[in-house]
Write a structure and sequence with these properties.
With about 700 residues, the protein is an alpha+beta fold. The chain has four domains: about 55 residues, Cytochrome C Oxidase, Chain J (Irregular), CATH 4.10.91.20; about 300 residues, Catalase core domain (Catalase HpII,  Chain A, domain 1); about 80 residues, Hemocyanin, N-terminal domain (Up-down Bundle); about 160 residues, Rossmann fold (3-Layer(aba) Sandwich), CATH 3.40.50.880. The protein is about 25% helix and about 15% strand. The protein is built from 19 helices and 19 strands. Strands 1, 2, 3, 4, 5, 6, 7, 8, 9 and 10 form a ten-stranded antiparallel sheet that branches. Its EC number is 1.11.1.6.
């Protein structure tokens, strides 16, 4: 039997090769393999006569087209996917018997789908929303699906409320507006009617809801699971993904502008990074709570609206995932991939988390209707590497051709095969938990604490992050038409922090609330802050995108030296000018323009560099687009750099309270609030070091009066 259970040593690619169409095939055929002689003109009774029903190629082609769209996911409809692999750092035998978490030398294939929650398939990438982070592990024991989000908590505690929440968050029923947005009455009406949403709303209003890219986004399992080892000992587990590039976000104004310039911004970023070999990497972490410690915390560990603060339950990083291949076909893979929370392997089990318990039913039920029946596991992207052997035979879209006459157990005609496996043979054994109690619709008392962790989140934010949260409330709640709901939102969040509530009230046109007794709890958890967390890095420019603004007559030596330094550090540079084509330097060399001001914008880049060249700068100073490019990047707190005459363009942009390199100190590099300047265009070594260090820090929130910049 062990031989039957052995996993084919071929890669996932090899396993699926039989399902791939050869793009080099010479002849066009029907779905039955019949070569087609004409695919442009339907069969008619005479050249001007009616089309004949017997034209089987026409009927097949149109019928397939008519049925090409499958129902989109109700939530997480807008997604992007990638293939890769996972490796554990060391055997996890103490915690779990799951085989893919034991051998550091084994690469387990994975497919990851990132997504937004609320929008339809055609919505924009950079909307304010929670992001899905779903991972399918093709393990030797079967498929394991870790279906998580980029925010560690959820809006509701019990899955029975999920339809209500989604109905409230989706476009309103009477007019189907707004798209991919929670800035409307029904969502906020739901919020004020359900105080359990407050903690997640705080995360949603933060920068976490507008990530810079999927490659710089954390992931969380959200729910409480169990690890079970070979001896049957269980422990409560929460799962984490940490991006090795650090955790970075867009600012709200930037995100809105990107939605117009490039609605596919996150999808394109992921695709291009993998195509260029900049493979996204994430460390896999676990938080562990021993069963005997289940009740020692001031929160209920089964409550999906609560985090386990890392100061109380540290994260142990146990492995790394690398995404190294884009899908061959978006529909066949990214759209048809089916994640089910119930897909687990021996050594991983569930808790009594009421949100998780409902998800165990909902995900499977969703795939049955979306993918047309019970055989969706046979679609290539969903097929496990582990061999399948059971008594299922029929149903929509059955692809396996089963031999033999027996499809039941026990049986005597087929030697009682296939038979159940014991635990020693790799059979899945559910964790033996003692469960008793009256049938009741109730939740534990700790579930009813709706505000403590929302306060914890607010207290943990840096000052810039707090300002961004307030701005987010002003936009989201400012779009609410009903003044009673706006007032109720302010009163609800007064339970979190009085100053926060006063700030919200000021922006949404309602009266400020009175201070509530007992709301000023000063406990903090720095790791929930992107600015303060130990889980991010600010020491690399790898994969950052740098815009270089030039015109004819630019300083070629300066551009070349800076580009070499930036590219050498792993960044990518784009030449931006008024028109596409070739530009000539002051010394006769040429550079090709990658983007013009219509196709690009500062919001699509992480930093901006302006080289010298008197003719080039004289031209740029007369171009409003170039000045706007500088102002907008400055307003969004991004690094700016300029050498030689390029400093004059930054000065022409009237950036407030910034010191620039002076005319008389040609060798001196001045770095002020992320603006790096040098008058020396020939020797850029010191400038490069300072500019690279500035880009690595990502943003400069200490810039004062940036709202005075016209951008």
């Amino acid at each position: 039997m062990e031989k039957k259970r052995a996993v084919d040593e071929k890669s996932k690619d090899d396993q699926l090769e039989m399902f791939r169409e050869d793009p080099e095939r010479e002849f066009l055929t029907t779905n039955q393999g019949v070569r087609v002689s004409n695919t442009d003109i339907s069969l008619k009774a005479g050249e001007r006569g009616p089309t004949l029903l017997e034209d089987f190629h026409f009927r097949e082609k149109i019928t397939h087209f008519d049925h090409e769209r499958i129902p989109e996911r109700i939530v997480h409809a807008r997604g992007s996917g990638a293939h890769g692999y996972f490796q554990v750092y060391e055997p996890m035998t103490e915690y779990t018997s799951a085989k893919f978490l034991q051998d550091p030398n084994k690469k387990t294939p994975v497919f990851v789908r990132f997504s937004t929650v609320v929008g339809f398939r055609g919505s924009a990438d950079t909307v304010r929303d929670i992001r899905g982070f779903a991972t399918k592990f093709y393990t030797e024991e079967g498929n394991y699906d870790l279906v998580g989000n980029n925010i560690p908590v959820f809006f509701i505690q019990d899955a029975i409320k999920f339809p209500d929440f989604v109905h409230a968050a989706k476009p309103e029923q009477d007019n189907q507006m707004p798209q991919a947005s929670t800035a409307h009455d029904t969502l906020w009406d739901f919020v004020v009617c359900h105080p359990e949403t407050v903690h997640t709303i705080m995360w949603l209003m933060s920068d976490r809801a507008i990530p810079r890219s999927y490659r710089m986004m954390q992931g969380f399992g959200v729910n409480t699971y169990r690890f079970v080892n070979a001896e049957g000992k269980g422990r409560f587990i929460k799962f984490h993904w940490r991006p090795l590039l650090g955790i970075h976000s867009l600012v709200w104004d930037e995100a809105q502008k990107i939605s117009g310039k490039d609605p596919d911004f996150h999808r394109r970023d992921l695709w291009e990074a993998i195509e260029m070999g900049n493979y996204p990497e994430y460390e896999f972490g676990i938080q562990v709570i021993e069963e005997e410690d289940e009740f020692r915390f001031d929160f209920d560990i089964l409550d999906a609206t609560k985090i386990w603060p890392e100061e109380e339950v540290p994260v142990k990083f146990i492995g790394k995932m690398t995404l190294n291949r884009n899908p061959d076909n978006f529909f066949a893979e990214t759209e048809q991939v089916a994640f089910c929370v119930s897909n687990v392997v021996p050594g991983i089990d569930f808790s009594n988390d009421p949100l998780l318990q409902g998800r165990l039913f909902s995900y499977l039920d969703t795939q049955l209707i979306r993918l047309g029946g019970p055989n969706f596991h046979e679609i290539p992207i969903n097929r496990p590497l582990a061999p399948i052997s059971n008594n299922q035979r029929e149903g929509y879209h059955r692809m396996t051709i089963n031999k033999g006459k027996v499809s039941y157990f026990p049986n005597s005609l087929g030697e009682n095969l296939p038979r159940p496996a014991s635990a020693e043979e790799g059979g899945y054994i559910h964790y033996m938990e003692k469960v008793e109690g009256k049938k009741i619709r109730e939740r534990s008392e700790k579930f009813k604490d709706f505000f403590s962790q929302a306060k914890l989140f607010w207290n943990s934010m840096s000052e810039p992050e707090k300002k961004h949260i307030i701005i987010a409330f002003h936009f989201e709640v400012g779009k609410v038409i009903d003044p009673k709901i706006r007032k109720a939102v302010v009163e609800l969040f007064n339970n979190v922090d009085n100053e926060l509530a006063i700030s919200i009230a000021r922006g949404v046109g309602v009266s400020a609330p009175e201070q509530k007794e007992g709301t000023q709890v000063m406990k903090e958890s720095p790791n929930v802050s992107q600015e303060r967390t130990e889980h991010t890095v600010k020491n690399t420019i790898k994969t950052r995108k740098i815009a270089i603004l030039i015109a004819d007559g630019y300083d070629h030596t300066g551009v070349r030296q800076v580009m070499q330094a930036l590219n050498g550090g792993g960044a990518h540079t784009d030449i931006i000018s008024k028109y596409r084509g070739m530009l000539k330097s002051s010394s006769g060399e040429k550079l090709e323009v990658n983007q013009n001001y219509l196709t690009a914008a500062s919001v699509m880049y992480d930093a901006v560099y302006v080289p010298g060249g008197k003719e080039s700068i004289d031209t740029l100073k007369m171009q409003g687009d170039a000045i706007h490019f500088i102002n907008e990047a400055f307003r969004h707190c991004k690094p700016l750099g300029a050498t030689g005459e390029g400093v004059e363009l930054l000065k022409a942009a009237n950036l407030p309270d910034i010191k620039f390199a002076g005319q008389k100190s040609a060798d001196k590099v001045v770095s002020d609030k992320g603006v790096v300047t040098s008058r020396n265009s020939e020797n850029t070594g010191s400038f490069n070091d300072s500019f690279i260090a500035a880009i690595a820090k990502h943003r400069y929130w200490d810039r004062e009066k940036k709202e005075q910049v016209p951008a």
